[in-house]
Amino acid sequence: MGNLPRRSGALLALMGLLVLAACGVRNAPPPPEPGWERGGVPDLRGTTVLLLPVQASWVGDRGAVDGELRYALESRGPAVRWLGGRELEVLARQAGRLGADVHALPVSIFEVGEVERVGDPLFGAVYRLGAIADARYALLPVAARTTEGEEDPGQVRANLNLALLDTRSGRVLWQGILEGTPGAQGSPAPLASLAERVAGRLLP
């Protein structure tokens, strides 16, 4: 019987924590929208950058997103060596056990908001790939989506949530949600415009 007050106090404390947690969820800021970004993009000229696969896409198949991104980046930044596609698969085989599938990386934290640094297994994967390729940076396209244009009925805009990582430390150097110009639903124009927007931001 002498333990009842202590147990009651512990129960009340637990209930208080649950209430505070619930308030924190209700008051949490909304997820970032297109146009949001943080951090800064370093000068990528003369460097090797891992171009990781887009992790999710509602714009088209993921291969189309990867292809448009690589074309736009290579066209705008010939001084940068981009490693993606088959080259990345070869690197992954050389790296052996990465601890993660490069096509299914744990990226949900980037959908919530600002990320300062990534941990394992994402960090372990980019660290090993970067070490083998001597690549200081990794570009991680998280998710590509479309939104309907309010001012242009029947037109859509494609946007991409992506981040630039330091492969040696796991620090997120830059993070943003970039958006292209409006285009017809089902046409390649929205995705091509988005890829050009990304290339222009990373390689001014």
Overall geometry: globular
Largest sheet at a glance?
Answer: 8 strands, mixed
C-alpha termini separation:
72 Å
- Using the CA coordinates, give the radius of gyration: 21 Å
Could you tell me the CATH topology label. Rossmann fold
Structural class call reads alpha/beta
Oligomer: single chain
Give the helices and strands as they follow along the chain.
HEEEHEHHHEEEEH
Task: Walk me through what this model shows.
This protein is an alpha/beta fold. It has a single domain (34-202), classed as ABC-type transport auxiliary lipoprotein component (Rossmann fold, 3-Layer(aba) Sandwich). Helix content is 39%, strand content 23%. The protein has 6 helices and 8 strands. Strands 1, 2, 3, 4, 5, 6, 7 and 8 form an 8-stranded mixed sheet that branches. The chain is globular, with a radius of gyration of 21 Å. The chain starts with a helix and ends with a helix. 35% of the residues are buried.
Question: Can you lay out the helices and strands and say which pair or pack?
Answer:
Layout: H1 4-26, E1 37-39, E2 48-51, E3 56-57, H2 62-76, E4 81-83, H3 85-95, H4 109-112, H5 122-133, E5 137-148, E6 155-166, E7 172-179, E8 183-184, H6 189-202
Parallel strand pairs: 2-4, 2-5, 3-5
Antiparallel strand pairs: 1-7, 5-6, 6-7, 6-8
Short structural summary:
This protein has one domain: ABC-type transport auxiliary lipoprotein component (Rossmann fold), CATH 3.40.50.10610. Helices cover 39% and strands 23% of the residues.
